[in-house]
Design a protein that fits this description.
Layout (H helix, E strand, L loop, with lengths): L2 H28 L4 H6 L6 H12 L2 H14 L1 H8 L2 H22 L4 H8 L3 H33 L6 H50 L3 H8 L10 H14 L4 H9 L4 H32 L11 H6 L4 H39 L5 H24 L5 H14 L2 H9 L5 H20 L9 H19 L5 H13 L8 H9 L1
Length: 503
């Protein structure tokens, strides 16, 4: 790459970071010193913004780097997994989202543990849920930083070393999130979601134009094994189903159910995920992955994670700089949401509820800002020592881990008999199953570890709920009585909900 191209990319990245810094400062000016305002903007985010920020949050370095790389390595099996998630996720996300939105507006929830610990009164339920929201997603932040390091290194042709790119990303994001909170994350993600969609579309179009419209025939000639399903069908479909079931309970998306102002925002969250799944992670990732089989044959394992960036580096000078921004946007739009969510969990569930319940909202808000820095440094350590392929890290650790929360959430929302013993049994058995089928008996019977966690978690919820005493009637009334009294189809905003409850 010529020096002019290198410095053009570097300048574009600098401008992008300056724009995000301005957005963060604007968010800081509008954010009060309180946990609720800093972490969910007091539930005032509009439907269009929540749609775009959900798109940006859900599709990230996993989309920009991991998706095409996964298709490059897995072939048709990767296509089935990545494109097969949407039909399951969308209806489940909207069904859950509407009820979580209603409860969040009524009882001022901030974190996933707020809801589960209220429905299943127990410090252990709150603690385990909080740990799930912290431990498993933190790998996902590291994945985004890893992606940024690769992007900066390749698109500047080595001008920025990988390690320096990771460190720059981590330090910037810690300040960006600590200052601006949810408002900065939401507004910044609007910009980054647009950049992500257009960037992926342009790279896919360039790959097709370079290889030719017969790219599938050419790819078959170079890599015929990619067009044969070599993966065990049971593993293939359980990965697809397990990944789809985990998306609605990703903690960084769960908190957006609370943050949206209107009930229709929950549909925006679902549509954002759906469009990303079908267009960005489906069509664009497939075209990039197949083009890469022709343009860069012979990539092995984690090398394929660089495929999108390698194709982008072939583009004309005028296109490389904007594409570099889109690449960074893909990673940062997820890292910011997860970092903010983890800081909220530490602040609300660990410090404010378990360690110092008398702490003021102002002090708790300040502690949350400091935690953003700490979380970013922990993610930096992971990113500087990445253990494997981006998608493999996510599939093996992050997705199955958060899926454990789905059975107790479904019980909280739809089953009156679900109780605290059932929730604890569900969380513990689900976690044990995920860890055992990941590190002791790897995917027994070729069933994805997330599905094992879901099966054992569901069994634990049902069994322990039925063999122990029913939940407190007041708790049941607080949740299911609210669902029975409130016509969800008629209540669209928090204001309408308050007026309805008064009447």
């Amino acid at each position: 790459m010529e020096p002019l191209a290198q410095w053009s990319v570097l300048a574009a990245m600098l401008v992008f970071f300056l724009i995000l810094a301005w957005i963060s400062w604007r968010g800081y000016r509008k954010t009060e010193e309180s946990v609720e305002d800093h972490f969910i903007a007091r539930g005032t985010i509009g439907a269009l913004v929540i749609f775009l920020t959900s798109l940006g949050t859900a599709y990230s370095a996993f989309t920009f780097l991991g998706g095409p790389g996964y298709i490059y390595n897995k072939g048709i099996a990767g296509v089935i997994i990545l494109a097969g998630i949407a039909p399951i996720t969308f209806p489940l996300m909207t069904m859950i989202g509407q009820r979580v939105w209603l409860l969040g507006k009524r009882y001022n929830y901030v974190t996933p543990a707020d809801l589960l610990a209220d429905r299943y009164p127990s410090a252990w339920v709150r603690t385990i849920t909080a740990l799930i929201c912290i431990v498993f997603p933190i790998f996902y932040i590291g994945v985004q930083y890893t992606g940024c390091g690769y992007i900066m290194n390749v698109l500047t042709d080595g001008l920025i070393p990988y390690e320096l790119g990771v460190i720059i990303t981590g330090l910037f994001m810690s300040v960006y999130i600590a200052l601006g909170g949810m408002r900065a994350v939401a507004w910044g993600d609007v910009l980054m979601a647009v950049l992500l969609v257009f960037g992926m579309a342009i790279i896919a179009a360039f790959g097709v134009a370079t290889v030719g419209l017969d790219l599938f025939q050419k790819a078959y000639a170079v890599k015929p094994q990619a067009f044969v399903i070599s993966m065990d069908p049971v593993l293939l479909w359980t990965i697809t189903i397990g990944s789809a079931l985990s998306l609605p309970v990703w903690p960084q998306l769960w908190t957006k159910y609370y943050a949206t102002k209107n009930q229709r925002g929950t549909w925006g969250i679902g549509f954002g995920e759906q469009i990303g799944e079908v267009f960005v992670l489906g069509l664009c990732a497939i075209l990039i992955g197949v083009s890469g089989m022709v343009l860069f044959p012979g990539l092995v394992g984690a090398e394929a994670d660089r495929l999108t960036v390698l194709i982008a580096s072939m583009m004309p000078l005028w296109a490389v700089a904007p594409i570099s921004i889109a690449a960074l946007a893909a990673a940062l739009s997820t890292a910011d949401a997860i970092s903010l969510m983890i800081a909220s969990v530490f602040t609300r569930d660990i410090y404010q509820r378990l360690i110092n319940p008398q702490v003021s909202e102002k002090t708790a808000g300040r502690i949350g800002r400091v935690l953003c820095f700490i979380i970013s440094f922990l993610a930096l350590i992971f990113a500087l020592n990445p253990p494997g392929m981006i998608v493999d890290i996510i599939l093996d650790l992050s997705w199955p881990g958060v899926l454990v929360m789905l059975p107790p959430l479904l019980g909280a929302l739809f089953w009156k008999r679900a109780n605290t013993a059932g929730a604890l049994g569900s969380l513990i058995l689900g976690l044990v199953a995920v860890l055992a089928t990941t590190y002791i008996w790897d995917t027994p019977f070729n069933v994805y570890q997330g599905i094992w966690g879901f099966i054992f978690g569901t069994a634990g919820l049902i069994l322990f709920s039925l063999i122990t005493k029913p939940p407190d009637p007041q708790v049941v009334e607080k949740f299911h009585g609210l669902f029975e009294r409130i016509p969800l189809r008629k209540i669209r905003t928090a204001e309408e909900l308050r007026e309805y409850l008064k009447s």
